[in-house]
Structures are given as structure tokens and as C-alpha cells.
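Bumping with the actual sequence this time:
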Amino acid sequence: MIEHFSAVWMEMAANPLFNLTLTLLVFVSASYLYRQFNNNPLLNPVLVSIVVLVGLLYVTSTPYDIYFKGAQFLHFLLGPATVALAIPLYRQLERVKKSAAAILFSVLCGSITAAGTAIFITWLMGAQWVSIISIAPKSVTTPVAMGITEQLGGLPSLTAAIVILTGIIGAMFAPALLKLCGVEDEAAKGIAIGAASHGVGTARAIQISEVAGAFSGLAMGLNALATALLLPILWQLFRG
């Protein structure tokens, strides 16, 4: 019976449309569950979807390459989705202009703090150099973080996992932490979330408000640029 089920599953999994539909159904179900429990951060849709999909792939022994043949269509949409963040940002353009200096300074501080603390803590815990530099760009969006790691001799696969984990943690706990710290301004919330937890955090910031989402998207982009420029310098100083 189990062997028959496995054979049927593998036959269906070979069809890219099946894996695309499966991914969408899991995420829609996770989003519904998230709303039903009053947006409980522990039920973040991205986290739940990853756990469910990884579990299914593991139990059914489905190779990731086969799964990705369907999921690649959603992967392609990440580009247009990121560009679409410019729409709420454009609506907040005047506010961005007025706060340009504060935004740049905040993102710069956030970039240095995120990379610097990651390097120092992992070094303090006795991690090897290759692991340290792989974890350092944890607060940068995945493609940029992997590119930085590769250039500095790290492991892009480890970087991707840490970046995704950072984004999920930020999306789960950043709003509550900012509230606890007394941060009320929507733009400030957006800058903090975007600089710390990139795209996944930005998706959560959009749920807070359009203002928070716009500033989070801006911070995500600026942080990627700042980290790409500053991390190699920090890395050389630290190793020296």
C-alpha cells in the first residue's frame, strides 16, 4: 500500500503543475490558519508552509529538483513582486524626501550592526571562518546575500538557510518587539523591519500598514547595497 502510494505520488510530482498547485494550496491554508488564530506570530504562513512542504518532500522522498520544476514559476514572480514594492514607496515619496538623511543613517547603522554582531557572536561561539562569513549577511535579501558570501569564500547554501530563518524570525517577532520598545511611527517600524529581516519582514510590514510596507521595502534595498559595500571591509578588519 505504501509502495503504491509512493509510486503514485512520484508520478504526480513529476508534473510541474502539481508542485505549483501544492505550494499554493499549502500557503493559502497556512494563511487561513494564521488569520483564524488572530495573526499569531508562531503561525507565520511562510514558516508553516516551509515546515509542511519540507515534511512532505522528506516523507515522500521527493528530490528538490523535481519539486522546483513547479515552484520555479513562483520563484520567477519574486522579481516582479519586489519591483511592485515601488508602488507604495512612490505614494510615500514626499515623506521619504523629508526623512532621507535619517533613513540613510538608520539603514547604515542597521547594516553595520547586523553584520558586525553576526560576525562577533559566531566567532565568539567558535565557528570556523567559512561559517562566520556565510552567516554575516543574514539580514540581506537572499540573492544579494548569496552573492556576497560567494565572493568572500563562504557557503551560499548556508547563507540562504540563515537568511530565510532571519526573515521568518523578524516577521514573527519584530512587530511585538517594536511595540514593546515604544516605537509608534509607522515609517520607523518599516525601516527597522526591512533592514533587519528583508523580504519576509517586508511582507509582514505591509500587513501593518502601507507606510510601514513602503519604508520596509526601501530599507531592504538600501541595506542590501550598504552590506554589499561594507561587509567586505568589516570582514578584512575583523580577520586582521
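The C-alpha cells above came from a reply further down the thread. Residues 87 and 126 are 44 Å apart (CA to CA).
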